[in-house]
Design goal:
The protein is an alpha+beta fold. It has one domain: Creatinase/methionine aminopeptidase superfamily (Creatine Amidinohydrolase, Alpha-Beta Complex), CATH 3.90.230.10. The chain is built from five helices and 17 strands. The strands form six sheets. Strands 1, 2, 4 and 5 form a four-stranded antiparallel sheet that branches. Strands 3-14-13 form a three-stranded antiparallel sheet, with no helix packed on it. A hairpin with a 2-residue loop joins strand 4 and strand 5. Helix 3 runs antiparallel to helix 4. The longest helix is centred in the N-terminal third of the chain and has 21 residues. It is globular, with a radius of gyration of 17 Å. The termini are far apart. The structure holds 2-amino-4-trifluoromethylsulfanyl-butyric acid and cobalt (II) ion (2 copies). The site of 2-amino-4-trifluoromethylsulfanyl-butyric acid has 13 residues, from strand 4.
């Protein structure tokens, strides 16, 4: 049998993950004031490139995946109907857009991963409501878990909240364990399934919660030209928030808390 490293981190490994999460949050705070109308998503990427490099760390997204379709940029920028994995480019953010910026950094070999949806200027009630729902679902997912609890507690909390607001939860893309690898076990679906009802969140396990909430259908379409951009099938809006979480003996610890971003309970 293949021997696999335990997913349960030691005290020093937990501290390494805390440092990675803290830097990643600092990066998102650095980018934050620049996410506004008139800025291209490429300019946001360039800020990620520079801040990460100037601090001696590595952007995990750049070249992530396999040839010939490795991810070409250092963060994901997902605008309006883009659910996730939007590629920064010449798109100019405009009043009324919502854009998710997803950053992942490798700090001394360990990963921090998080994202926020930003409202650009004056947005529609629907855009604000779906953004609020994704944010609330992230925190409800975090609050639903405890050491020794089940991964499905996350999905149960998220689906019931999203559906009560008449929004849908994306199934094809999920949260994930992370550590020295970007994506590893356990899978963290934002809806309950057979596996998540079995998976236990032991102290020392590190993972993301990153619900993608859609205004309309939950179904997705992958852009066949770039092989990355994921959109809603009906073209309606989608929003997402993500944190890296460490389960401790005392409960979940959020490793990617920002100084300037929306805090628990925030109203958009
Ligand atoms: N940051 C994304 C996540 O939350 C993954 C992006 S992979 C990339 O898991 F290649 F698109 F960058
Ligand atoms: Co992630
Ligand atoms: Co991410």
């Amino acid at each position: 049998m293949k021997k696999r490293k335990s997913l349960r981190l030691s005290a020093s490994e937990r501290d390494a993950m805390r440092r990675a999460g803290a830097f990643n949050a600092e990066l998102l705070d650095f980018v934050r004031p620049h996410v506004k109308a008139g800025v291209t998503t490429e300019q946001i990427d360039q800020l990620v490139v520079e801040y990460t490099r100037d601090h001696g760390h590595i952007a995990a997204c750049l070249n992530y995946g396999t040839y010939p379709n490795a991810f070409p940029k250092s963060c994901c920028t997902s605008v309006n109907e883009v659910i996730c994995h939007g590629i920064p480019g010449d798109y100019v953010l405009k009043d009324g857009d919502i854009v998710n910026v997803d950053v992942t950094t490798i700090v001394d070999g360990w990963h921090g991963d998080q994202s926020e949806t930003f409202l650009i200027g004056d947005v529609s009630d629907e855009a604000r409501a779906v953004t609020q729902c994704a944010f609330d679902c992230l925190y409800l997912g975090i609050e639903a878990i405890q050491p020794g609890g089940r991964v499905s507690d996350i999905g149960d909390a998220i689906v019931s909240e999203a559906e009560s607001r008449h929004f849908s939860v994306v199934r094809e893309f999920v949260g994930h364990g992370l550590g020295m690898k970007f994506h590893q076990e356990p899978s963290i679906p934002h809806y309950p399934n057979r596996q998540s009802r079995l998976d236990i969140i032991h102290p020392g396990i590190c993972f993301t919660i990153e619900p993608m909430i859609n205004v309309g259908t939950r179904h997705t379409v992958l852009d066949s030209r770039d092989g990355w951009t994921v959109r809603t099938r009906d073209g309606k809006l989608s929003a997402q928030f993500e944190h890296t979480i460490l389960m401790t003996e005392d409960g979940p610890e959020i490793l990617t808390l920002t100084k300037d971003g929306p805090q628990r309970g925030h109203k958009f």
